[in-house]
Amino acid sequence: MSAISTIDFKELKKEKDELVVRAGYLQRLIMAKKIPVMIVFEGVHASGKGRLSNELLLALDARYTDFYATHKPTEDELRRPLLWQYSVNAPTYGNINIYYRSWYSLYIALINQKFELNRYTDKKSLVKEIRDFEKTLIDDGTVLIKFYLNISKEKQMEHIRKMRENPRTMWRAQEYDAENDERYEQEMKKLLKDGNHSEAPWHHIEYDVRERAVNEMLRTVTSVLEKAIAEHDRKSSELKERDGKFKGPKDGALDGFDKCITIEKKEYREKLENLQQRMREVQYTLYQKKVPLFVVYEGWDAGGKGGNIKRLVEPLDPTMYIVNTTAAPNESERNHNYLWRFWTTIPKSGHISIYDRSWYGRLMVERVEGFATNQEWSRAYQEINDFEESQTNFGAIVIKLFLYISKEEQLTRFEDRQSDPNKVWKITDEDWRNREKWDIYVEAVNDMIEKTDKKNAPWIVINGNDKRYARVKALETIVEICEKKLYEKSGK
Question: In 3-state terms, what secondary structure has residue 42?
Fold first, then answer.
């Protein structure tokens, strides 16, 4: 008697029907509680990933479920970091995303030279990026379920033979990783061990009998979702502190910038013209060498960010840069991890993204005003460092400027804006309220700079008490950093 003949398929069908009902019920809870879910299917070619993915799709409500198939990167995707396509395609809160292959397959295809992406000097650094990517999502409340399908060679050949015999499915036997099984398995063994953390362990499924594999997958999904919902409810009942944990004044990066440093108009014009010419050349070189550039402007209200950005972009080709003005997140942005909206704006290779305020809002206004819990902003230091490391690993230049003005200078500028009909729109009640919290904002910024000032993405504090000096100093800083990065290897 064969092993197959001993299987009670009616019993498996009954169990599956019950699991499908349970999965649908849990999905409605997931949606109501706004819990994002990512479900990954990995395995060798023709191991049953498509079959299990489809069974799961059929069990779920299509309105709140998205399917994403990993593919050979397009030309546009190759001009951004490897994890970009997954970062921008992360689920909204309350949605379930299913991934047919994932960042693991894409990484293996890269190191096995299935496509060219020469931006990475150390491709192994992507293993850490994968860990960081998953940790950021999990810490934000994402439920990550990872399946690895094991299949015998005999069963795999049976699947491939059936695909080749049918003209309509022949193409599936020839997908880009079909001849890559041995190397894929070798690398996945390492990644399975490395990526098997307790928050998102790998679940192994033996694909011998389809019905049995489907039920095992559905059992795992429902079990993990049940535990995730219980954990979500437990955490929701906990008191979430939002006091910012401020400890009072201390020395920091902003010390010593109250004094005004001035520059004469003639010198200002000469230096500005020269720096803008050099910046134009920098832009052309960035494009030629396919190097992305981030320029982040942070600083006090009325600190001169807008005027600085205007002088930076004045000489530039507008087809190769974009200015991103960061305001309060809209509804779509609130339904994602806070870094999602910045992943959608990162520059492709050879282009420039300029940020008038940025992801650092989580460590300043969100911490000070209590928009983020103590736990959320505390872990954001490392999350932001990881985000920036992902960009610089890809070869990007990241420059972060903080424009500092004294409290007295800010008051003068506020009063000028208040009395000028052409500028009164720039001043709001919120700006005046923020002045009342000056000291804790200083503490927040000092902490931010101390913990996110990295060699690959340094902070530069600019004395902004004199607008002309600040514009020259900021542009000079940007040009010099870019020239050093762009020309140091060639010796120019």
Answer: strand
**Both structure tokens of 429:** 């009640």
Q: Identity (one letter) of the amino acid at 74?
A: T
Residue 170 has pLDDT above 70, yes or no: no
Question: If 0-12 CB within 10 Å is exposed, 13-18 middle and 19+ buried, where does residue 357 land?
Answer: middle
Tell me which residue of 471, 79, 456, 457 sits closest to 279, measured CA to CA.
Answer: 471
Residues 436 and 368 sit within 8 Å (Cβ to Cβ): no
For residue 40, list its beta bridge partners: 99, 146
Q: Which of 75, 56, 345 is nearest to 205 (CA)?
A: 56
Tell me the one-letter amino acid at 147. Answer: F
Q: What is the pTM of this model?
A: 0.94
Q: What are phi and psi of 112, to 5 degrees?
A: -95, 10
Q: Is the dihedral of CA 356, 361, 365, 368 positive or negative?
A: negative
Cα–Cα distance, 397 to 4 (Å, whole number): 59
Closest to 448 measured CA to CA, from 440, 435, 344: 440
pLDDT of residue 197: 73
Strand, helix or coil for residue 45: coil
Task: Collect contacts of 5-14 with beta carbons under 8 A, ≥24 apart.
Answer: 7/209, 7/211, 7/212, 9/211, 12/211, 12/212, 12/215, 13/211
Ordered domains of the chain (ranges, CATH): 4-237 (3.40.50.300), 265-487 (3.40.50.300)
Give the residue among 23, 3, 95 at the shortest CA–CA distance from 336. Answer: 95
Residue in the structure block whose two tokens are 């409500």:
61
To which H or E segment does residue 445 belong? helix 438-452
Asked whether the predicted pLDDT for residue 167 surpasses 70, the reply is no
Residue 178 has pLDDT above 60, yes or no: no
Contact by Cβ (8 Å): 410, 301: yes
Instruction: Give the neighbor-by-neighbor strand order of the sheet with 397-404.
Output: 321-325, 352-356, 293-299, 397-404, 459-463
**Residue 73: DSSP 8-state:** P
The answer to whether 445 and 301 have CB atoms below 8 angstroms apart is no
DSSP assignment letter at 98: E
Give residue 3's pLDDT: 56
Alpha helices in 75-180 (DSSP H): 84-87, 103-111, 125-139, 153-165
Phi, psi angles (nearest 5°) of residue 297: -110, 120
The model's pLDDT over 405-452, given as tens digits with 9 standing for 90+, comes to 999 999 999 999 999 898 888 888 888 988 999 999 999 999 999 999
| 95, 340 Cβ separation under 8 angstroms | no
What pLDDT digit, counting tens, does each position of 216-265 carry? 999 999 999 999 999 999 999 999 999 999 999 889 999 999 999 999 99
484 pLDDT exceeds 50? Answer: yes
Can you read off the two tokens belonging to residue 146? 């990872």
CA nearest neighbour of 297 among 408, 401, 431, 177: 401
